[in-house]
Write a structure and sequence with these properties.
This protein is an alpha/beta fold. The chain is 50% helix and 11% strand. The strands form two sheets. It has a four-stranded mixed sheet with strand order 3-2-4-5, with helices on one face. Helix 2 runs antiparallel to helix 4 and helix 7 packs across helix 8.
């Protein structure tokens, strides 16, 4: 990692571009607020990653222009955004960005961040069950895969059902035992599989399915 940082600084020093220095500082300094906390997954690096993206984009465009003028001996590109060379570089980067995640099924997240395995397993449980629920309904998960004090079940249910108005309770986060008849759906694990174990009769509300 140190060699990457030194190479990045060296490139900015050789290029002598003020905006390039800004991208370098952004990429190297923005991680400081989160770099000393326990591992939380790469999502904490979304903001610093913008610096790396801008730095890489500058290098790609600058490298293309340098090759175009000095190696291929062509006149500088016009400012037209639809020049074939610009379109080719855009499509090449877009293909690379789409291709890399497809080859990353064995990502280190699987073993460095155990929560990723829990999230994937819980998502499979809900999608496999494919239970329709009324829009704005109240759900109860008697058991799930998340730690007792986690909000993952609520967030995942709202994301999969595309409904921010869903209310999701878990006994481990309640001050008193839940009253099962109050819920539109009650979920629990039966023989190791997520199942519906209770709930109100169907209503006229629009039914949603997990996506």
């Amino acid at each position: 990692m140190l060699s990457v940082w030194l190479a990045t600084i060296a490139v900015a020093a050789v290029a002598r571009k003020g905006f390039l220095w800004f991208f370098v500082c952004f990429a190297l300094l923005a991680p400081l607020p989160v770099i000393f906390i326990p591992y939380r997954g790469f999502f904490v690096m979304y903001l610093p990653f913008a610096g790396w993206a801008m730095f890489a984009a500058t290098l790609l465009v600058g490298g293309r222009n340098w090759l175009w003028v000095h190696v291929w001996k062509r006149p500088p590109l016009s400012p037209d955004a639809f020049e074939p060379e610009r379109i080719f570089l855009f499509l090449a980067v877009a293909y690379f960005v789409a291709w890399v995640p497809r080859q990353d099924s064995a990502s280190e997240l699987g073993f460095r961040d155990p929560s990723q395995q829990i999230v994937r397993a819980m998502r499979r449980d809900i999608v496999r069950l494919n239970e329709p629920v009324p829009q704005g309904s109240k759900l109860l998960f008697l058991h799930d895969r998340f730690p007792p004090d986690a909000w993952g079940t609520l967030m995942m249910s709202r994301q999969l059902y595309r409904d921010r108005t869903l209310l999701v309770d878990r006994p481990t986060m309640m001050n008193h035992p839940p009253n099962l008849p109050d819920y539109d759906r009650v979920f629990d694990y039966v023989d190791g599989k997520l199942a519906v174990v209770g709930g109100k009769p169907g209503s006229g509300a629009r039914l949603l399915r997990p996506q």
